[in-house]
Amino acid sequence: MLFKQQAWLRQKILVLGSLAVGSLLYLVARVGSLDRLQPICPIEGRFGAHGQAEFPLRALQFKRGLLHEFRKGNASKEQVRLHDLVQQLPKAIIIGVRKGGTRALLEMLNLHPAVVKASQEIHFFDNDENYAKGIEWYRKKMPFSYPQQITIEKSPAYFITEEVPERIYKMNSSIKLLIIVREPTTRAISDYTQVLEGKERKNKTYYKFEKLAIDPNTCEVNTKYKAVRTSIYTKHLERWLKYFPIEQFHVVDGDRLITEPLPELQLVEKFLNLPPRISQYNLYFNATRGFYCLRFNIIFNKCLAGSKGRIHPEVDPSVITKLRKFFHPFNQKFYQITGRTLNWP
């Protein structure tokens, strides 16, 4: 009898212990998510050193819940009104460059509780048909957010499209502009690789990179090839500087964002006058994928799409050398204009 009572008692202790552990795990997960999502208490200080606006970095309870419902179109107008949610024009735009890491940058910045991202590329300023629909059409393409949050969108075609700087200037002459760049030759090959993959999916043939990047008649770099032109960063930046001072631009090192993302993100937080909130906890290296993934809290992780990190085709070393020599003077001028020297050959 005593043995049965002891066994029953042990079983009861195990059950209670399991419940306690489960409750504890739930609370840990809840706290991890509430630290980002729930209105709890104001933070000390303001946006950056200049204090643009006091921002109680509160939970923003619906950033992963109710805001998700808005994106799906399931929330009511009454919910919008009750929770002071709005669709704001962006206060910052990632304007380029293509294959520089714009998607990775946008997703990583979205780790910050004060940032809300537009999920899709809007292509408002670089597309004449979209631009003709007007600024209200553009605003309604933005995600719902709280008034104190910063909405950010990215469309890498903006950087190289001639009409875009003036159009963005007319919308907001004080907007913050983010440019993420990679070593120009690597970026050009990555650009080619993406196009090549698209051709192969359609069972179409495509020229080798060497044939596109080098003019067969002159044996010089083919500046008519779009992948090459896009990598001449200083040429495009000079067009933007006709409308915006260099202080409104921030250059992100796309190569470093791959290998060491946190310092780059901290520089962007400072540029956007955001209180520092992204930490090493939010970034973990996925050995299988070969790059960093995102951790929002103890239960919500996210990796970029499998199309990221494509394997580049082998390129003739002499062509790589020729391209790097061609880009070198443009790179030096880019460093001089932006005030940031990057570790490019």
Largest sheet: 5 strands, parallel
Summarize the helix and strand pattern as letters.
Answer: HHHEEHEHHEEHEHHHHEHHEEEH
Strand content: 5-15%
Mean pLDDT value: 83
Keywords: Disulfide bond, Glycoprotein, Golgi apparatus, Membrane, Signal-anchor, Transferase, Transmembrane, Transmembrane helix
Enzyme class: transferase
Family: Belongs to the sulfotransferase 1 family.
InterPro entries: NST/OST, P-loop_NTPase, Sulfotransferase_dom
How would you summarize what this structure contains?
This protein is of the alpha/beta class and 345 residues long.
Question: Can you put this structure into words, describing what you see?
Answer:
By secondary structure, the protein is an alpha/beta fold. The chain has a single domain, classed as P-loop containing nucleotide triphosphate hydrolases (Rossmann fold). The protein is 43% helix and 11% strand. It contains 14 helices and 10 strands. A 5-stranded parallel sheet has the order 3-5-2-6-7. A hairpin with a 4-residue loop joins strand 8 and strand 9. Helix 11 runs parallel beside helix 14. Belongs to the sulfotransferase 1 family. It is found in: Golgi apparatus membrane.
Features:
345 residues; alpha/beta; Rossmann fold; five-stranded parallel sheet; three-stranded antiparallel sheet; 14 helices; 43% helix; globular; glycoprotein; signal-anchor
